[in-house]
Sequence to fold (307 residues):
Amino acid sequence: MTVTAEAVELVVAAEPEIERLMGEHRERREHWYAHEVVPWEMGRSFRDDPWDESQATLSPEVRTALQLNLLTEDNLPYYHAKIAGSFPEDSPMAEWSRLWTAEEGQHAIAIRNYLLTSRNCDPALLEDERLATVTKGWSYEAPCPIEMFAYTSAQELATRISHRNAGVKADCPVAHEVMTRVAVDENHHFMFYRGVTAAMLREAPGLVLEAIHGALADFRMPGTGIPNFNRRAVIIARAGIYSLRIHAEQVLQPLLRHWRIESLDGLDARASELQEKIMAIPVALIAQAEAFEMRLERRSKTRSATA
Ligand SMILES: [Fe+2]
Ligand SMILES: [Fe+2]
Fold:
């Protein structure tokens, strides 16, 4: 049997758990309305009063984070295509992908309307970048559907943290509320994907460890195709909104703890090797993060010495 056929079988076997977790999600998630949190009272015509950077109220770092997060949300059609396309039309996962897509759709609506009404973005540039981002698209090559669950577990948690931290650092109660609402949704999505992965891990640890390793060893956020992604990622890391250290310590390590990767036993030789490799991923990232932080510190010391 090929890995894919085995993986498909494992997902089918997990369907009762998928249904249960989807039911839990429906009960737990509080429905919310973007129009109630967007500050419409601040909105005014861009024709009569064109945008100028002096109108922005948030720091440049926070604006960078909100715009990057928004453009990432804007690529939802590709995420939907990937998830919906990985499962049969009449499966519980197809039902989940429709529900998930509907909820995700509100995120870009809320963040964009906030940025426009509060004038914390250049509206023309934002639209140009949205067009560039969506035209470029997004793809994720997963060798089997299990990898998608491992990837989305990490991605939803990463997005939750990034949205939440951007809201906290905004130092503005309205931005804070918008981003908290979005982050709470991401948290519910994260719990769903993490739960399905955990259920499959109990059934077929070898297969799922392979998928977790595939998803996390060289994890890339879905926003990497956005214009100037690297430059923006550095700004956000320096602001403490999302960084390599946060990714290792607040995304990967808690996930691996929840899945109890380190204490899985009775594994065959290949699975034990994967277990070790997976546990080493956050350790290596923390070492990279330390080197990055030291470079930043050295640079800021040189700057203050020459100032
Ligand atoms: Fe989202
Ligand atoms: Fe999400």
About this structure: Residues 73, 104, 107, 159, 186 surround fe (ii) ion (ligand 1) (CB under 6 Å).
